[in-house]
């Protein structure tokens, strides 16, 4: 079985868009407890490197590390473990909310933007970026930025994502390169 309900969201996204290709190199940001990594391995991805603030039980052959993605040493560490540039950077990261609407929104957007900047910095040309985002606020400007760097950018709301949540997944394919 899967370790998370989130696994079903990635399954739906991948059934629709076929992002997890055998032989691809994948980075999983906010990977605990490991559901997305499980789906990636099950779909034939050989090289998966994941990171989370929380410890993750091993899922061989994936490399899973416990670290803060916003630590400047994290990105280089992920690339080193992966042994090269990723074909896919996927982020399901969500910060703990503090209950103050504006603060929470800024923290969430900061994390999504950090994931996007990282993806643009490291992806192979033609690569893919997937990120959990939230409708409204700054998400429109993120989409605008993604459109400058990727040939196709879309919003996906998986059925497994609660209808009453504002969660959406941004899927950007065809990285144009640096
Ligand atoms: N995709 C995962 C799965 O299928 O098992 C579920 C991910 S869960 C919705 C979001 C995760 O993001 C949490 O485990 C949280 O610890 C992690 N996270 C939040 N901020 C982070 C950060 N700065 N660095 C690394 N992970 C972070």
From TrEMBL:
<protein>
    <recommendedName>
        <fullName>Ribosomal RNA large subunit methyltransferase E</fullName>
        <ecNumber>2.1.1.166</ecNumber>
    </recommendedName>
</protein>
<feature type="binding site">
    <location>
        <position position="92"/>
    </location>
    <ligand>
        <name>S-adenosyl-L-methionine</name>
    </ligand>
</feature>
<keyword id="KW-0949">S-adenosyl-L-methionine</keyword>
<keyword id="KW-0808">Transferase</keyword>
<dbReference type="GO" id="GO:0008650">
    <property type="term" value="F:rRNA (uridine-2'-O-)-methyltransferase activity"/>
</dbReference>
<keyword id="KW-0963">Cytoplasm</keyword>
<feature type="binding site">
    <location>
        <position position="36"/>
    </location>
    <ligand>
        <name>S-adenosyl-L-methionine</name>
    </ligand>
</feature>
<feature type="binding site">
    <location>
        <position position="68"/>
    </location>
    <ligand>
        <name>S-adenosyl-L-methionine</name>
    </ligand>
</feature>
<keyword id="KW-0489">Methyltransferase</keyword>
<feature type="binding site">
    <location>
        <position position="52"/>
    </location>
    <ligand>
        <name>S-adenosyl-L-methionine</name>
    </ligand>
</feature>
<feature type="domain" description="Ribosomal RNA methyltransferase FtsJ">
    <location>
        <begin position="2"/>
        <end position="175"/>
    </location>
</feature>
<keyword id="KW-0698">rRNA processing</keyword>
<feature type="active site" description="Proton acceptor">
    <location>
        <position position="132"/>
    </location>
</feature>
<comment type="function">
    <text>Specifically methylates the uridine in position 2552 of 23S rRNA at the 2'-O position of the ribose in the fully assembled 50S ribosomal subunit.</text>
</comment>
<dbReference type="GO" id="GO:0005737">
    <property type="term" value="C:cytoplasm"/>
</dbReference>
<feature type="binding site">
    <location>
        <position position="34"/>
    </location>
    <ligand>
        <name>S-adenosyl-L-methionine</name>
    </ligand>
</feature>
<comment type="similarity">
    <text>Belongs to the class I-like SAM-binding methyltransferase superfamily. RNA methyltransferase RlmE family.</text>
</comment>
């Amino acid at each position: 079985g899967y370790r998370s309900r989130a696994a079903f969201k990635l399954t739906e996204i991948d059934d629709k868009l076929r992002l997890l290709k055998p032989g691809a190199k994948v980075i999983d940001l906010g990977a605990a407890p490991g559901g997305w990594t499980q789906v990636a391995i099950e779909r034939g991805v050989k090289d998966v490197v994941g990171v989370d603030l929380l410890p993750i039980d091993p899922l061989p052959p994936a490399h899973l590390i416990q670290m803060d993605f916003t630590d400047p040493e994290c990105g280089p560490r992920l690339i080193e473990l992966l042994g090269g540039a990723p074909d896919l950077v996927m982020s399901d990261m969500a910060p703990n909310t503090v209950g103050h609407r504006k603060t929470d929104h800024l923290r969430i957007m900061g994390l999504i933007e950090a994931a996007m900047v990282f993806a643009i910095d490291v992806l192979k040309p033609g690569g893919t970026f997937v990120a959990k985002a939230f409708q409204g606020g700054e998400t429109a400007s993120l989409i605008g930025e993604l459109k400058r760097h990727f040939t196709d950018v879309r919003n996906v709301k998986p059925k497994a994502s609660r209808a009453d949540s504002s969660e959406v997944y941004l899927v950007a394919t065809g990285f144009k390169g640096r």
